[in-house]
Amino acid sequence: VLETIVQGIKDGRSSELRDFGRFSPKKIKGRSNARNPRSGEIIKTSDSKSIAFKMSKKLKQEINNIEREIN
Predict the structure, then answer these.
(1) Contact, 34 vs 48, CB < 8 A?
(2) Going along the chain, which residue ranges are E strands?
(3) Residue 43, H or E segment
């Protein structure tokens, strides 16, 4: 399952696991005015990829029900 999700993200596709959530690729644009916090030097960052996760309604409800039972 993990290999399928990773391959889908590499190919730019979302992967969904029913009743769990959706993993989607996310593009992060590079910046030309970023700063190094130690030296204050202005640096340029390149474009990168990240993964966004959105949980399903069912998973969210289950998590919230568990929290209510604990409190």
Answers:
(1) no
(2) 15-17, 21-28, 34-35, 42-43, 48-55
(3) strand 42-43
Give the C-alpha separation, 62 to 70, whole Å.
13
Query: Which positions ≥6 away from 2 have C-beta within 8 Å?
Result: none
For 42-53, how does the pLDDT look when each residue is reduced to its tens digit (9 = 90+)? 999 999 989 999
Partners of 22 in beta bridges: 16, 54
- Which helix (H) or strand (E) element contains residue 63? helix 57-70
Q: Which pLDDT does position 67 carry in this prediction?
A: 65
pTM of the shown model: 0.67
Provide the 3-class DSSP secondary structure of residue 5. helix
Neighbours of 24 (CB within 10 A): 17
What is the dihedral sign for C-alpha 3, 29, 41, 37? negative
